[in-house]
């Protein structure tokens, strides 16, 4: 009796085994190791026998072992999944018919995007599959399919840190419209599709253009690396947008809209110009901020007493950025960088690498003279930063070359040192 019940179970497990080993390209010993664990075997058995267990996912751990799970987990490695649409126990003879099997790679969204673009969209958009449908149904489905693909396309770009502009519905019709320009017989539905794409692109691009590095200061204590990273990412994203807007297909879109005297053509042209201007700004700022990178890295990686030697060279470099950059020489920009530098100094006081420098409990436990010396050194370095700032501020004209005079730092120092002053007051209390 027991043998009769075990046989079907073994047969069902063999089906899972064959699929998993072939898909993940594993050897039999990996499956045998999986079955040797009572907990893992129970997960498999519950999926086969219990109607409510409708999902089984198997993946390879960092140790190279197969691991079963009753739900999808965060992607990281290639996975194999089995789904029971009917939600019933499985029989040996109907495994293939009653299971949905598949694999997921580490980049699930990219895989899903490829499925939508290469399978779902062509299948549902094929006119031969719609021959018996009403026109209204066909058009409505086409709109939903394009919306799905657009969303997947845009989100996949966001995951990569890029702004991807989804092509308009029926991209192949752009070629047709481009060829019909001279004949003035462009299908109005094509114009509508192009204008809808321009509107959506405008929203996406506007969100990018409105971003500002000052926003990251709200409620946070960013360091200069945050500022440098912001401009690196912004430049890369704008380059991506610019390359898309300069592509041959988009150029043909513009030609069609211009020939059709579309009211969206001027907006489209203006959008391109704004992207180019923002890209020029981002490239300029990235170029001039890049030499600051090693200075900030040194500031982060030295013992705090050694920071003293870094302050004057760092401030000198900031003044060079101010004097030479076409776009970074505005109070809003330099204040952000100086505030970030103050945050970095505060961070280094609290936890210089590799050992802690000033921790209240540590100060109270140590010898009084030693603790007092550390507190005093801390205050001297922070005060030096403020002093050097005032010196450079008063002598910015030294950075003038053959260009007009260097703009002064005529903003209040409180915009820069408000947080640092509060921190220094607390340190003085410890002293």
UniProtKB/TrEMBL annotation:
<dbReference type="GO" id="GO:0051959">
    <property type="term" value="F:dynein light intermediate chain binding"/>
</dbReference>
<protein>
    <submittedName>
        <fullName>(spotted green pufferfish) hypothetical protein</fullName>
    </submittedName>
</protein>
<feature type="domain" description="Dynein heavy chain tail">
    <location>
        <begin position="192"/>
        <end position="431"/>
    </location>
</feature>
<dbReference type="GO" id="GO:0005858">
    <property type="term" value="C:axonemal dynein complex"/>
</dbReference>
<dbReference type="Pfam" id="PF08385">
    <property type="entry name" value="DHC_N1"/>
</dbReference>
<dbReference type="InterPro" id="IPR013594">
    <property type="entry name" value="Dynein_heavy_tail"/>
</dbReference>
<dbReference type="GO" id="GO:0045505">
    <property type="term" value="F:dynein intermediate chain binding"/>
</dbReference>
<dbReference type="GO" id="GO:0007018">
    <property type="term" value="P:microtubule-based movement"/>
</dbReference>
<dbReference type="InterPro" id="IPR026983">
    <property type="entry name" value="DHC"/>
</dbReference>
């Amino acid at each position: 009796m027991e043998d009769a019940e075990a046989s079907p179970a073994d047969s069902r497990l063999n089906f899972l085994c064959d699929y998993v080993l072939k898909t993940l390209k594993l050897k039999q010993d990996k499956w045998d190791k999986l079955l040797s664990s009572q907990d893992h075997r129970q997960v498999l058995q519950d999926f086969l026998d219990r109607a409510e267990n409708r999902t089984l996912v198997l993946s390879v751990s960092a140790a190279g072992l197969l691991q079963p799970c009753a739900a999808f987990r965060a992607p990281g490695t290639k996975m194999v999944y089995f789904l029971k649409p009917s939600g019933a126990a499985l029989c040996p003879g109907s495994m293939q018919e009653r299971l949905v099997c598949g694999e997921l790679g580490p980049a699930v969204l990219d895989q899903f995007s490829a499925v939508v673009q290469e399978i779902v969209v062509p299948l549902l958009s094929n006119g031969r599959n719609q021959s018996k449908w009403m026109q209204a149904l066909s058009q409505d489905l086409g709109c939903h399919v394009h919306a799905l693909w657009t969303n997947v396309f845009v989100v996949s770009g966001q995951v990569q840190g890029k702004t991807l502009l989804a092509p308009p519905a029926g991209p192949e019709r752009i070629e047709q419209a481009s060829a019909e320009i001279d004949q003035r017989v462009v299908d109005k539905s094509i114009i509508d599709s192009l204008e809808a794409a321009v509107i959506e692109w405008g929203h996406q691009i506007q969100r990018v253009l409105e971003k500002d590095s000052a926003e990251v200061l709200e409620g946070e204590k960013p360091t200069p690396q945050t500022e440098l990273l912001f401009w690196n990412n912004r430049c890369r994203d704008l380059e991506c947008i610019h390359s898309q807007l300069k592509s041959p297909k988009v150029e043909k879109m513009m030609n069609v809209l211009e020939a059709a005297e579309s009211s969206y053509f001027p907006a489209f042209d203006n959008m391109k110009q704004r992207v180019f201007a923002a890209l020029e700004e981002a490239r300029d700022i990235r170029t001039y901020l890049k030499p600051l990178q090693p200075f900030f890295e040194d500031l982060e990686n030295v013992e705090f007493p050694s920071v003293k030697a870094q302050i004057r060279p760092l401030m000198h470099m900031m003044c060079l950025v101010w004097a030479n950059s076409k776009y970074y020489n505005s109070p809003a920009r330099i204040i952000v960088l100086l505030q970030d530098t103050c945050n970095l100094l505060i961070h280094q006081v609290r936890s210089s690498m590799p050992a802690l420098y000033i921790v209240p409990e540590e100060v109270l436990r140590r010898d009084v003279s030693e603790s007092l010396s550390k507190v005093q050194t801390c205050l001297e370095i922070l005060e030096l930063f403020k002093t050097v700032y005032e010196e450079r501020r008063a002598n910015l004209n030294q950075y003038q070359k053959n260009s007009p005079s260097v703009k002064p730092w005529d903003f209040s120092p409180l915009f820069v040192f408000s947080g640092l002053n509060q921190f220094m007051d607390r340190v003085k209390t410890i002293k």
